[in-house]
């Protein structure tokens, strides 16, 4: 055995120079070739085996093996093509398994450049692995090819490692020049040393040292490998089409994602090399720009290429920036949280450590080089409001929308440069932290994405709109669908698409708004009103507007009547008309309204402008190219002449799984005994296409009992249903209750998180006007997207209408199993009735817009 706490390099003379290796040392050799590294590894291996050390070789490079086959050396091959996180996690897990005082040899770290395209990520890898190896009293050898890395990468490795050594081969001789030897010192330690057999001869004389170093070519500062590739791509613009196509594919794999899927095919078809270089010029950091950014850019390119000038004059330009996904990992690594991240990636720590990591992500610091780039971006935008949007790797792709799972943060961007910068940094932190939100984690788990890399890139966009006195907002915003899955009456053309339209910022179009409504537009007949508007058009219209308050420097909500009195720089009549009926009723009640209330119904916009036809054509064009239905987030601004510009903010494959999946469904005839067997029936107001679904269990929240509960008890009801939902995985269960599921206001419905109802087969909302409970068919919202992706049938029962029947006694006469299934929640049995319902079936006919549920 060697000296206690010490070990040998296998070069006795050099051992004397550095006073031996110490347990915990990470040894980084800067070499000119892999062969030079092999020559240094060989004596280290031989000596370590003589000292009966456990030796581990971590193999990941394409170069010749540093260690040949050896029965006493454990070799582990780890694939770096699977991405930074998986590779690093596997290495980390290997080190954990091997435990204390194992000795390691790693392949040349320079090999990772080919896979990760970024010096930054090699530095991050080393900063994760090196401290863990030190903690376990190991000794590990690493190599870097000299002049292949940036000074900043080498500086980061120097700061982290215990030994950094330059190796030179000059005139057939080998010289080792220690640059860092941590925690030991001698007067000649940091001179170059000639290795001659077992000896290490210090080169101390100035003439010899100068002669030696004058013979060594030392490269100038090297660009990051990422920048080298971009420079080569720039040069390729002068090459032939074949070369440009090759380089274009490389950039797509670098920035947009290399999976050979449909999105990659579309990117290769529509993006040019020049397009990609423009994106690269606006990327901060390295890595992927994420799904949301790709979808936005691709939609714009498709409309430009395929629109035949149809959309050339009506699409608003964009000047977005992208914060690369590598910045997310760098932020975690450089703040010292990778160990926590590794724990969170385990099955047992998935939720537990997610909470802790979320808290950390809100408090970290960014590296100086990233801070400088962020500041430059902010200087570019000036005081224009911006929005910082999540753009994760898995977002907005076929099959996984992640709708509303991650945060988007508006920055009104007012104040001093320092204040504006701090607001930007905090917005980025909030988006990063949202990757650890419980709902986002549950979504990934439910979608089978537990072990997939979910790096968080960020899309930074200039907010579309204009200043209106102290407010900033677009005239209209919303989300469009190339297929209309909410067919509320016969004759609607599903293939014409639909819009979910609001005045002001689009936040109200994608979120369920409490006590407020968006305008649903069937694009085959834009003036057609959904059935819930028929009773009271004002009641079911938009009453509040989301705007950016420049004076308050934040996102806020204003009354529509207030905002509509501003000078909108276009005709207000496109969006609203005076509501003389409300004004008359107020006068009768002795109330005076000045100015006259406005009714936001978009009637002229939808009947007289080209806007709905343009949106229909855009959506249809994108669907044709995607060969799949799409949904599109947009804004639109109108000029004084009535012309409009549409800003394409986001485009993704539309989530249609489970909707309209069955063929025609024949509803059973209601015979004389129907009253005994019919649970409910109705016409329209459902989403889920044709259906014939077994209903094995029903959870019914009794409206009268629920209304009498305190807010705290209502939240407890929600948590109780969440526990039932967890038990019902794999069962056919129907959840039905008063008002809106998923509301944040308990007086409007049950404040259930989506993860607490995700295993239900069907979800129904019941109107109980006497208690203030009113459903909202939330087609197009993030809540709706969740329902579609989870294959949950959704409907509303407006009890009291002629075409609606609701007979809760059909369920209430069955035993309440709540106490049996959740004994600790038996106290809520008066409000929650959970019953087994064998033989019950839910039927829906989308053509005739009829549904019923019966035993």
Automatic annotation (TrEMBL):
Keywords noted in UniProt: Kinase, Pyruvate, Transferase
Domain Pyruvate phosphate dikinase AMP/ATP-binding: 289-657
Domain of life, per lineage: Bacteria
InterPro entries from the UniProt entry: ATP_grasp_subdomain_1, PPDK_AMP/ATP-bd
Coiled-coil intervals: none
A molecular function (GO) term: kinase activity
SUPFAM superfamilies given in the database record: Glutathione synthetase ATP-binding domain-like (SSF56059)
Protein's name in the database: Pyruvate kinase
Source organism: Paenibacillus antri
Lineage of source species: Bacteria, Bacillati, Bacillota, Bacilli, Bacillales
């Amino acid at each position: 055995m060697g000296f206690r706490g010490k070990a040998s390099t296998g070069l006795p003379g050099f051992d004397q120079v550095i006073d031996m290796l110490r347990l915990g040392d990470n040894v980084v050799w800067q070499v000119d070739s892999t062969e030079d590294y092999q020559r240094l590894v060989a004596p280290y291996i031989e000596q370590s085996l003589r000292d009966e050390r456990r030796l581990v070789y971590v193999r990941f490079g394409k170069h010749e093996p540093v260690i040949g086959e050896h029965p006493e050396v454990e070799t582990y091959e780890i694939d770096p093509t699977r991405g930074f996180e998986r590779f690093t996690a596997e290495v980390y897990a290997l080190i954990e398994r091997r435990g204390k005082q194992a000795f390691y040899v790693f392949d040349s770290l320079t090999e990772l450049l080919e896979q990760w395209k970024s010096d930054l990520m090699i530095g991050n890898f080393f900063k994760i692995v090196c401290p863990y190896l030190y903690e376990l009293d190991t000794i590990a050898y690493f190599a870097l090819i000299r002049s292949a890395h940036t000074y900043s990468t080498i500086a980061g490795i120097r700061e982290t490692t215990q030994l950094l050594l330059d190796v030179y081969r000059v005139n057939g001789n080998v010289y080792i020049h220690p640059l860092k030897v941590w925690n030991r010192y001698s007067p000649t330690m940091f001179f170059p040393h000639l290795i001659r057999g077992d000896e290490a001869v210090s080169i101390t004389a100035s003439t010899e040292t100068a002669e030696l170093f004058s013979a060594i070519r030392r490269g100038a500062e090297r660009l990051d490998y990422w920048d080298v590739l971009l420079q080569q791509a720039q040069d390729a613009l002068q090459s032939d089409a074949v070369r440009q196509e090759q380089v274009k594919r490389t950039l797509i794999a670098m920035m947009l994602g290399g999976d050979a899927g449909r999105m990659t095919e579309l990117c290769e078809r529509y993006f040019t090399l020049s397009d990609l270089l423009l994106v690269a010029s606006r990327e901060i950091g390295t890595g992927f720009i994420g799904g949301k950014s790709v979808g936005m850019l691709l939609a714009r390119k498709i409309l430009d290429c395929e629109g035949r000038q149809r959309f050339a004059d009506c699409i608003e330009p964009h000047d977005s920036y992208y914060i690369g996904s590598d910045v997310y990992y760098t932020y975690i690594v450089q703040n010292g949280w990778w160990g926590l991240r590794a724990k969170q990636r385990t099955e047992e720590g998935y939720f537990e450590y997610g909470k802790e990591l979320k808290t950390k992500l809100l408090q970290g610091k960014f590296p100086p080089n990233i801070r400088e780039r962020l500041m430059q971006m902010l200087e570019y935008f000036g005081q224009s409001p911006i929005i910082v949007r999540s753009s994760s790797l898995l977002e907005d792709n076929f099959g996984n929308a992640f709708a509303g799972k991650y945060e988007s943060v508006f920055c009104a961007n007012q104040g001093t440069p320092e204040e504006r910068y701090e607001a930007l940094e905090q917005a980025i932190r909030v988006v990063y932290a949202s990757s650890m939100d419980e709902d986002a984690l549950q979504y990934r788990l439910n979608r089978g994405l537990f072990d997939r890399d979910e790096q968080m890139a960020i899309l930074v966009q200039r907010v579309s709109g204009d200043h209106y006195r102290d407010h900033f907002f677009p005239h209209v915003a919303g989300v469009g669908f190339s297929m209309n899955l909410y067919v509320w009456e016969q004759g609607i053309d599903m293939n014409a698409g639909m819009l979910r339209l609001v005045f002001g910022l689009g936040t109200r179009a994608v979120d369920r708004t409490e006590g407020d409504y968006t305008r649903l537009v069937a694009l085959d007949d834009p003036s057609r009103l959904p059935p819930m508007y028929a009773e009271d058009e004002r009641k079911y219209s938009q009453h509040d507007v989301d705007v950016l308050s420049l004076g308050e420097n934040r996102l806020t909500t204003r009354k529509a009547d207030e905002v509509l009195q501003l000078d909108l720089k276009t005709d207000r009549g496109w969006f609203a008309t005076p509501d003389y009926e409300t004004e008359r009723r107020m006068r009768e009640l002795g109330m005076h309204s000045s100015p006259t209330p406005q009714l936001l119904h978009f009637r002229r916009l939808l009947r007289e402008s080209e806007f709905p036809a343009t949106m229909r054509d855009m959506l249809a064009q994108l669907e044709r190219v995607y060969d799949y239905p799409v949904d599109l987030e947009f804004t639109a601004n109108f000029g004084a002449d009535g012309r409009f510009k549409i800003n394409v903010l986001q485009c993704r494959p539309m989530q249609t799984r489970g909707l309209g999946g069955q063929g025609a469904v024949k509803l059973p005839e209601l015979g004389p005994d129907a009253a005994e067997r019919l649970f409910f029936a109705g016409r329209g107001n459902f989403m889920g296409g044709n259906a014939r679904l077994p209903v094995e269990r029903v959870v019914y929240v009794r409206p009268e009992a629920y209304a009498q509960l305190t807010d705290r008890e209502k939240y407890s009801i929600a948590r109780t249903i969440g526990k039932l939902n967890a038990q019902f995985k794999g069962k056919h269960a129907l959840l039905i209750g008063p008002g809106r599921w998923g509301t944040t206001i308990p007086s409007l419905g049950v404040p259930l998180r989506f993860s607490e109802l995700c295993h239900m087969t069907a979800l129904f909302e019941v109107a109980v006007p006497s208690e203030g409970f009113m459903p909202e068919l939330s087609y197009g919202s993030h809540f709706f997207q969740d329902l579609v992706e989870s294959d949950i049938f959704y409907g509303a029962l407006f009890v009291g209408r002629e075409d609606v029947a609701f007979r809760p006694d059909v369920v209430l006469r069955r035993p309440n199993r709540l106490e049996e299934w959740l004994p600790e929640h038996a106290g809520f049995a008066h409000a929650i009735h959970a019953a087994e319902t064998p033989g019950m079936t839910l039927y829906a006919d989308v053509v005739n817009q009829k549904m019923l549920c019966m035993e």
